[in-house]
Amino acid sequence: MYKEGDLVAIVKDLPEKELVRGHVGTIAFMYNDGGLYEVEFINAIGETVAVATLSESEILAVQPQNAILHVANVSTNTV
């Protein structure tokens, strides 16, 4: 179970949102009726680039002390 503010990574590509497996977002809202989470993805300067409603099976907890983040161009998903 996750809570608002948790960092999570997506476990599958979401091409309609231009997100790929491994992108990290923050849980912004939890829906009470079925284990769905509103996850916000931001760029390096804090601007929202995507928001996705995801199920618990589509996300994975990120432990900041054990994670290495990488840079991807949001529009092309390349470095």
Structure description:
This is DUF4926 domain-containing protein. It comes from Runella defluvii. It holds the Pfam family DUF4926. By secondary structure, the chain is mainly beta. It has strands at about 5-10, 25-30, 35-40, 50-55, 60. It has a single domain, classed as Roll (SH3 type barrels), CATH 2.30.30. The model has no long low-confidence stretch (mean pLDDT about 90).
In brief:
It comes from Runella defluvii. With 79 residues, this protein is an all-beta fold. It has no helices and five strands.
Biggest sheet layout: 5 strands, antiparallel
CATH class identity? Mainly Beta
Rg, rounded, reads 12 Å
Total number of β-strand segments?
5
In helices, the fraction of residues equals: under 10%
Oligomer: single chain
Low-confidence stretches: none
What is the name of the CATH topology? Answer: SH3 type barrels
Protein name: DUF4926 domain-containing protein
Pfam families: DUF4926
Any key phrases for this structure?
single chain, 79 residues, mainly beta, SH3 type barrels, five-stranded antiparallel sheet, 0% helix, DUF4926 domain-containing protein, DUF4926
Topology:
Blueprint: E1 7-10, E2 24-30, E3 36-42, E4 48-55, E5 59-61
Antiparallel strand pairs: 1-2, 1-5, 2-3, 3-4
Protein name: DUF4926 domain-containing protein
Organism: Runella defluvii
Pfam families: DUF4926
